[in-house]
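Hi X.,

You mentioned you wanted examples for the new student's onboarding notes, showing what a folding record looks like when two proteins sit in one file. Here is a clean example. The first protein comes first, with its sequence line followed by its structure tokens.
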Amino acid sequence: MISNLIRLCAFGLLVSAIPAQARDSLGIFEEWGAFRDPQTPRCYAVAKPSPSSRSRDYAPFAAIGTWPQRNVRGQVHFRLSREIANDRTIRLVIGDRVFELTGGGGDAWARDRAMDAAIVAAMRSGTRMVISASDKRGRRFSDRYNLSGAATAMDAATIGCARR
């Protein structure tokens, strides 16, 4: 019971880092939460990375979003822990799959919808993922995510927007 309360509070802090808008909680699933923003409308699964003692420029998170009115489903977005150097590789590793992402500043995305789908499929069968890049000072960094609950949270987000 206490563990679930702590996890819910942690997700509250994580969601507060995402631009403030009215949100409906669709559930907390292990390390991942699912939310609906009826004003946009959009739904998303979101998680924060494993704790790190390294310096951070931003509050990092991984989100998989659905925007039904835009016909977008399963769009991958990462808020990185540091501001990345221009023209540097952003690499996502899930199991034996490696994806080179696009991005800038503190954000990274899949290059296209096909890559979004491949990343989501890898997340469904994986146990952890690591995103790494070089920051503006040339230092390598990584954000590590536990994928426990990711598939269920993504499903809850998809269903949450399908009901609208």
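Then the second protein repeats the pattern, sequence line and then tokens:
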Amino acid sequence: MIEETIFSKIIRRELPADIVYQDELVTAFRDIQPRRPTHVLIIPNTHIPTMDDVTTADEPVLGRMLSVAASIARDEGIADDGYRLMINCREHGRQEVMHIHMHLVGGADVGPMISG
């Protein structure tokens, strides 16, 4: 049985989201609580709970997540100044939804990688 998440419902467009990109492998949408002027989540359309659950079979979707992130950064006008990509994993990584997702943040200085 596949675990249902809020992201599963966004992929199927059962919940509203500001979707900026979707194809057969990934969906990208604006974060509802943006940390920077550009904050987009890029997720696989198949459910992969955490990075620790990734297998070699998932390499095409992970590659697509990265190429879509670069394309969105260019479209958003943040590629030249730079941006950050983040994937959190489990409790200590502060993963909030158990469906892997990559944060694309930019449009302003993103600050130090880890503080405190």
